[in-house]
């Protein structure tokens, strides 16, 4: 796999349906670590161009946006269409410097215990044709972030002090990251555990793209693609009302009336729960309403009534009493 490099060029106009003459190197056939293509995934045009620029020109791309908008999945789906191996790493508080760089470990050779260096995920990825995605980039520990900082440069060489070795990145190595905040910390209270990013490090990202909620018609298309049972005259009307409710909740959040926002992921989960419970109101309560603040639930119930012309049953009512 180390010597594996892109062996053809993809026409973006043909492969992604975008109005551009951009050409991107790609692999002729999928191999190990290439994500599966989701044919129903809706690619945002500007975000897709940013990601493709990262693949084509070895740009470091940071994708920022609200939760549930499909940031990581978007990168994976672009990689899948290029047959480019792709690996995601969640930078939670348990990821350490050694997890990224590696450490000495004891292995058995010729029936004897010997010490060998075991590369971490960053060290391994640098030497392979892999697109590495750092998820939750704004939640990484400071000591871990400084390890990443050096490889953000275009040459991206990594020095292993314990090994007296300098790693030169594979020509097909690419680096991406996703974050809910833009490096200045979280003022909304939605993203507990995130922290401000070092501005010197943030400056090393070549491209910073923003992926937030899709326009209503596109979000409806995503919902219908993920839940094809809604693709009927009545179902499409219901899907339109569901998207309208989600956007009312988001508007209420922006205006400061609500502290919880409804993401596209939650919207899809609501539709999937409708399939299980055969009941729209019950599915909405179990998916979103029950995790909202008690003082904010009346406003959300008002939004629901406005979209569906029916009252949302009070919390605690028997599911059998819910209207469909």
From TrEMBL:
Gene3D superfamilies, per database record: P-loop containing nucleotide triphosphate hydrolases (3.40.50.300)
Domain AAA+ ATPase stretches: 57-203
Keyword annotations: ATP-binding, Nucleotide-binding
A Pfam match: AAA_5
UniProt keyword Disulfide bond, yes or no: no
SMART domains recorded: AAA
Alphabetized GO MF terms: ATP binding; ATP hydrolysis activity
Family listed: Belongs to the CbbQ/NirQ/NorQ/GpvN family.
The protein, known as: AAA family ATPase
Source lineage: Bacteria, Pseudomonadati, Thermodesulfobacteriota, Desulfobacteria, Desulfobacterales
């Amino acid at each position: 796999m180390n010597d594996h490099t892109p062996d053809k060029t993809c026409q973006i106009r043909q492969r992604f349906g975008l109005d551009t003459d951009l050409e991107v190197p790609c692999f002729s056939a999928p191999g190990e670590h290439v994500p599966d293509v989701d044919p129903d995934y809706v690619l945002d045009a500007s975000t897709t161009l940013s990601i493709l620029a990262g693949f084509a020109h070895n740009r470091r791309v940071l994708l920022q946006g609200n939760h549930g908008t499909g940031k990581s999945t978007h990168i994976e789906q672009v990689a899948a269409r290029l047959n480019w191996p792709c690996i995601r790493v969640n930078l939670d508080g348990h990821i350490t410097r050694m997890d990224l760089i590696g450490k000495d470990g004891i292995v058995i050779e010729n029936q004897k215990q010997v010490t060998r260096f075991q590369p971490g995920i960053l060290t391994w990825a640098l030497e392979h044709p892999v697109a590495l995605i750092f998820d939750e980039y704004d939640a990484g520990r400071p000591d871990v972030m400084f390890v990443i900082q050096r490889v953000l440069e275009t040459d991206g060489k990594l020095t292993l002090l314990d090994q007296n070795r300098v790693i030169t990145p594979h020509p097909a190595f690419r680096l991406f990251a996703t974050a809910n905040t833009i490096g200045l910390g979280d003022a909304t209270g939605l993203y507990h555990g995130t922290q401000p990013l070092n501005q010197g490090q943030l400056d090393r990202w070549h491209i910073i793209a923003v992926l937030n909620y899709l326009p209503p018609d596109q979000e409806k298309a995503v919902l219908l693609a993920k839940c094809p049972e809604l693709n009927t005259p009545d179902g499409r009307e219901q899907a339109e009302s569901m998207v309208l409710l989600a956007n009312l909740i988001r508007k209420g959040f922006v205006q400061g009336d609500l502290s919880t926002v409804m993401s596209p992921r939650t919207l899809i989960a609501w539709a999937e729960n409708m399939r299980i419970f055969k009941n729209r109101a019950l599915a909405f309560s179990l998916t979103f309403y029950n995790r909202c603040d008690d003082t904010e639930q009346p406003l959300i119930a008002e939004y629901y009534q406005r979209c569906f012309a029916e009252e949302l049953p009070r919390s605690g009512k028997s599911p059998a009493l819910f209207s469909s």
